[in-house]
Design a protein that fits this description.
Rossmann fold; 3 domains; six-stranded parallel beta sheet; alpha/beta; globular
C-alpha cells in the first residue's frame, strides 16, 4: 500500500471532497489514506464512517475576490500555510507518508509541506477561479512557482488543462473525476415527468440560478405548465432574492426551493430534465451525476459543461450561457421533441459510465502514485531547493514583523449573530413585533442598510405590513432592481425616496457607519440593536 496524505481545503463536503471520497472508498486495499482538513465540520462524520484517519490542522486558502486584498493579507495567509506545513512534518513522519496529494488549487500548504519533507507532491486543479467565481490567487507568482515545483498536476477536463497551459505554462495530466456509478445509475427513464426540471448545487450568481428562474418564468408566462426544483444551500442573500422574484411574479406553484440534500435520487427519478446553468464549470460533477441518473441535461455552452454534453445534441442540449431566453427556448425545444429523449439518455449514460467511473479514475491516479514513489532521483532538485530556501527566508523575515494569532473575529461575529437572533425571537414570542415598535416612534417608511441574513429577515418581517420599505443599501446586490430598490452608499447619484429612518442591520461597531449614512442621506438612523431595545420596552 502507498501511504498518501490528502490536503482537503473544506470542512463541509463539496464536490471536490466527494470525488476524493469516492476514490478512497474504491482504494481501501491499495492506499493508506490520511486526510488533513482546516477545521471542524460535517466532513468529519463522513471520514469517520469510512474509517479514514484525519487531522484538523488550521490553514487558510489563498484566494479572494479579484482585486480585494492587501499585501498584509498575503503575508498572513502565507504564514498560516507555512506554519501548517511545519506541523504536518510530524504527521508525515508518524504516518510514514510517501506522497502528498492536494485536492484543490486554493491552498498551498500541501506543496510547501512536500518541499520541506522532500517527498513527491500531486496537485489536483479542479477550478479556474477567475472564470468560475470571480476570484484570484493572493500571490500569483508564488502559486506559479509552487505549481512548477509539484511533481504532477492533475486537471479535471481538457478545458482546465488547456487553460492552465496557457496561463501558467504548465503541463498537466487530464483525468476526469471518478463518480460512484452504483450510487447514481438509474434505468427509470419512463417514470420521469416530462415537464419537470431540476437544478442542483450550491446557490450563487455564478451558478446561473437567476437565468433558470427567469427562463422558467418565460415559459410559464407563455402557457407552459412546468415545474422547476432548485436544490442546494449556499449564498443566503441570493437565494432570498430569487425567492422574492418567485413570490412577486406568483410562481410559487411552479418553482420550488429545497434545502441541500445528499441523496438526489428521488428528485432525479421525478425530473426528466436537469439544468446546468453555471457561468463556467471546470467540469461539472452534477452534470455527470444527472447523466448517470438518466436525466436529459440542458447546459450552458461554456467550459466543462460544453465538453461533457457535446455540440451535436447527442448527449444533451446546450444554450447560450447568460441568456435566459436561450435557455427557455432550449427547455421548450426539449419538451417538444421528447421522441429524442430515450436515445439522448442512453448515450449520455453510456458516456458518463465510460469516462467517469471511479474504478478507471483510481487506476489512472494509481499509475501516477506508483511512478512517483518508485523514482530514484528527485527531478528539479535545484529549483525545489531554491524555492524552499526562498520560502524559509520569507518566513524568517516575517517572524519579526507579524505575530500570527488565531483570528477570533469569525467566532465573535457568530456569537453576536446568535445573541441578536435570540433577542429577536424572544420579542416575537412575547408579541412585541418590530412593526409596532417602529410605528410607536412615528416611523412609517424605512430603508434597510445591510442585506445579509439579518437584513433579509427584517425585510421579510415588515414586507407585507404597515411599514413601507422604500429601498435597501448593499453593494453586494446586483441585477434585482425589479424586485427591490437598491442603493449604494458610496455612489448616491440618484435622488432616493424619502424615508423616516434607515435601519442598520450590521453588527459590531457601527458609530462611523451611522455618521456616514446621516451625512449622505440626512435621515434618522436606527441600528438593529436599538430597534430590538424598543421592542423589549413595549408592553406585550
Amino acid at each position: 500500500m502507498i501511504s498518501v496524505l490528502y490536503i482537503v481545503n473544506e470542512s463541509e463536503a463539496g464536490g471536490a471532497a466527494q470525488s476524493l471520497m469516492d476514490m478512497l472508498t474504491a482504494a481501501r486495499e491499495r492506499i493508506h489514506a490520511i486526510v488533513v482538513i482546516p477545521g471542524e465540520g460535517s466532513i468529519e462524520a463522513r471520514f469517520q464512517k469510512m474509517n479514514i484517519d484525519y487531522y484538523v490542522v488550521p490553514f487558510q486558502t489563498d484566494h479572494r475576490k479579484s482585486g480585494v486584498h492587501t499585501a498584509a493579507e498575503e503575508d498572513r495567509v502565507f504564514m498560516s500555510n507555512y506554519l501548517a506545513a511545519l506541523k504536518l512534518q510530524k504527521i508525515i513522519k508518524r504516518e510514514k507518508i510517501e506522497l502528498i496529494h492536494t485536492n484543490s488549487s486554493v491552498s498551498n500548504v500541501g506543496a510547501i509541506a512536500a518541499l520541506m519533507a522532500g517527498i513527491p507532491h500531486v496537485w489536483h486543479i479542479r477550478e479556474l477561479l477567475e472564470e468560475h467565481y470571480g476570484f484570484s490567487y493572493l500571490d500569483e507568482a508564488l502559486k506559479k512557482e509552487l505549481f512548477a515545483c509539484s511533481d504532477t498536476l492533475i486537471t479535471i477536463s481538457d478545458y482546465v488543462k488547456n487553460a492552465c497551459r496557457s496561463r501558467y505554462g504548465i503541463d498537466s495530466v487530464r483525468i476526469y473525476n471518478g463518480v460512484n456509478v452504483d450510487r447514481f445509475l438509474s434505468g427509470n427513464f419512463d417514470v420521469k415527468d416530462g415537464h419537470s426540471f431540476l437544478l442542483a448545487g450550491v446557490i450563487s450568481p455564478q451558478k446561473g440560478h437567476g437565468d433558470a428562474v427567469r427562463a422558467a418564468h418565460e415559459l410559464i408566462r407563455n402557457g407552459e405548465e412546468i415545474q422547476l426544483y432548485i436544490v442546494g444551500g449556499g449564498n443566503y442573500q441570493y437565494r432570498w432574492l430569487l425567492k422574492k422574484y418567485v413570490k412577486k411574479h406568483g410562481l410559487e406553484r411552479n418553482i420550488h426551493f429545497l434545502d441541500h440534500r445528499e441523496d438526489l435520487r428521488q428528485l432525479r427519478d421525478r425530473c426528466l430534465y436537469s439544468i446546468t446553468a453555471s457561468k463556467m464549470e471546470a467540469l461539472g460533477r452534477v452534470t455527470v451525476e444527472a447523466m448517470m441518473a438518466g436525466c436529459v441535461v440542458i447546459g450552458a455552452d461554456t467550459g466543462g459543461t460544453a465538453e461533457i454534453i457535446g455540440q451535436d445534441h447527442s448527449r444533451g442540449y446546450l444554450y447560450r450561457q447568460g441568456d435566459y431566453k436561450s435557455l427557455a427556448e432550449m427547455m421548450r425545444y426539449a419538451m417538444a421533441h421528447r421522441e429524442n429523449n430515450t436515445e439522448i439518455q442512453r448515450r449520455a449514460q453510456q458516456y458518463s459510465r465510460d469516462r467517469f467511473d471511479t474504478a478507471k479514475y483510481l487506476e489512472e491516479v494509481m499509475r501516477i502514485y506508483e511512478e512517483l514513489t518508485r523514482r530514484k532521483e528527485t527531478p528539479d532538485r535545484e529549483r525545489k531547493a531554491k524555492l524552499q530556501s526562498s520560502l524559509d527566508a520569507r518566513y524568517r523575515s516575517m517572524q519579526e514583523k507579524i505575530v500570527y494569532r488565531y483570528d477570533a473575529g469569525g467566532y465573535e461575529k457568530q456569537q453576536a449573530l446568535q445573541k441578536t437572533v435570540q433577542r429577536w425571537l424572544c420579542n416575537q414570542l412575547e408579541h412585541k413585533p418590530m412593526e409596532t415598535a417602529l410605528l410607536e416612534k412615528g416611523i412609517h417608511a424605512i430603508a434597510i442598510y445591510g442585506m445579509g441574513y439579518l437584513g433579509c429577515c427584517l425585510y421579510d418581517e415588515l414586507e407585507e405590513g404597515r411599514i413601507a420599505i422604500e429601498y435597501v443599501m448593499d453593494r453586494r446586490i446586483a441585477d434585482y432592481d425589479e424586485i427591490i430598490k437598491i442603493a449604494d452608499l458610496e455612489d448616491l447619484e440618484e435622488e432616493l425616496p424619502e424615508v423616516d429612518a434607515v435601519v442598520v442591520t450590521v453588527l459590531g461597531s457601527t458609530e462611523q457607519l451611522v455618521e456616514d449614512i446621516r451625512a449622505k442621506c440626512g435621515d434618522m438612523v436606527v441600528t438593529l440593536q436599538e430597534l430590538l431595545d424598543w421592542c423589549e420596552m413595549m408592553e406585550g
